[in-house]
Amino acid sequence: MDLLTTSVATVESGSEPYTLVELVGEADVTNSDALREVLDAEVAKQPRTLIIDLTGLRFMDSSALHVILRANRSMDRQGGVVALACPRDPVAKMLRLTAADQLIPVYQSVSDASAG
Amino acid sequence: MARPSVQFPDPPSRSQPLPSPTNDAMYHTYRSDLSQVRALVLKQAREAGLAEGRANDLVLAVSEVAANTLRHTRSSGTLAIWHDEEEVVCEIHDEGTITDPLVGRNKPSLDANGGHGLWLVRQVCDLVELNSDASGTTVRMHMTLRPPATGT
Known about the structure:
The structure holds two protein chains of two kinds.
Chain A: E1 4-11, E2 18-27, H1 32-44, E3 49-60, H2 62-77, E4 81-85, H3 89-97, H4 100-103, E5 106-107, H5 110-115
Parallel strand pairs in A: 2-3, 3-4, 4-5
Antiparallel strand pairs in A: 1-2
Chain B: E1 26-30, H1 34-48, H2 52-72, E2 77-83, E3 87-94, H3 116-124, E4 127-133, E5 136-144
Antiparallel strand pairs in B: 1-2, 2-3, 3-5, 4-5
Helix pairs in contact in B: 1-2, 2-3
């Protein structure tokens, strides 16, 4: 079984669809290149909103964080928004320590994130 | 008039060898599987009695240091973990060289494309010792089992 699985969906919600990327497992230096490819591909489609669902993510290291920060910068440049949903304790703490949660909005659920 | 000088602890010197791990230290060699390293640290930290949140902090710290082995060396790294009544200690040794003994002291910008690893290690651990020379790098991370009350 892969250490990290990613799944991508376009969700129709009210007036505006959003892109939902779900991360399950552990995100670290050994799979950050693969994560970057997945996020880059979605960012390139220029969605208005890209929500990353962290519910199933048990661990995230600084290389995965940098990939997410990079996606956030790209989205920002093209006028889009990245939101993070439902980080569990170790991941939430990492976002807090680095103050990444001050830069990227973090929501308790995907539906909260999609409501903005 | 001479004033008594104020003593500041020196940052761990790069040439100062660390004392050996205790005899009952457990060793694990890794090359690419950091998930296994993390699982081992979590298990040992829990068994030593470290609270869950701090056990996860130690897992993050060890994983960040071990990730540097994968990033910066072509060889394997070694994890040693031991504890006594006071603390849990994890040590990572690899063949990499850290030239800046103060690495990780300052918080990197979120725009930077790296550099958060050792900064995070210093944030979450009670004590970090770093020793690096031509033969390799040793990073020793300490977590106190009974941290002083913080009033929160």
